[in-house]
Structure formats: C-alpha cells, structure tokens
Specification:
This protein has 102 residues and is mainly α. The chain has 4 helices and no strands. The protein is flat, with a radius of gyration of 18 Å.
C-alpha cells in the first residue's frame, strides 16, 4: 500500500517514459548517433563557458548558449550518461580524429 500523500505514476506515463528512453539509447548507440552526440557535446557548451562577460544584448546570447547546453544535458540524462562518461566519449572522439588525420 502506498504511503499517504504519495501517488505512483499512471502506467501509461511509465510506459511512455520507458519507450522514450529506449528510443534515445537506440538512436545514439549507432556509429552515426555517437558521432552526432560527440558533435553536440563538443559544440554546444558542455566544455565551454556560456558567459563571455558583459554583453550589449542584456544576456540574450548567454541564454541562447545555455539553451543549447540544456538540450545536450537532456540527451545525456536520457542516455544515462554522467559527466565522467561524457569526458570519456569526447576524449575517444578526439583520439579518433587524431588517428584519422595522421
């Protein structure tokens, strides 16, 4: 029996969440998906600061960059990736890029 004041999620909500998570994992587990994820991690402020000092646009540029970063964080969450795994993925991508250029 559930505790007073707590509710479990409806079955349909849980099922949709499982399907959504599975879809993310399948999409980003292919070679192409990993390449896209690596690009997103590298280009959308996961390793860069989104603040570049006082701006004339009242922070809109920073808000835009934070929005880009938030999308990548959502994908990481759906994939179950933590920060250490993100760094490892980026390092592997960098190593692969060096190997192809040498």
């Amino acid at each position: 029996m559930a505790k007073a004041g707590t509710r479990s999620a409806p079955k349909e909500v849980v099922e949709k969440a499982i399907v959504r998570t599975t879809n993310y994992k399948q999409a980003f587990s292919t070679a192409q998906g990993k390449a896209v994820l690596l690009d997103l991690l590298s280009e959308h402020y996961m390793l860069k600061n989104t603040y570049y000092g006082p701006e004339n646009d009242e922070g809109r540029s920073m808000a835009y960059r934070e929005g880009q970063r938030t999308v990548v964080l959502r994908i990481m969450q759906m994939m179950g990736l933590n920060t250490a795994e993100m760094y490892l993925l980026i390092k592997q991508g960098d190593d692969n890029a060096r190997t192809k250029t040498n």
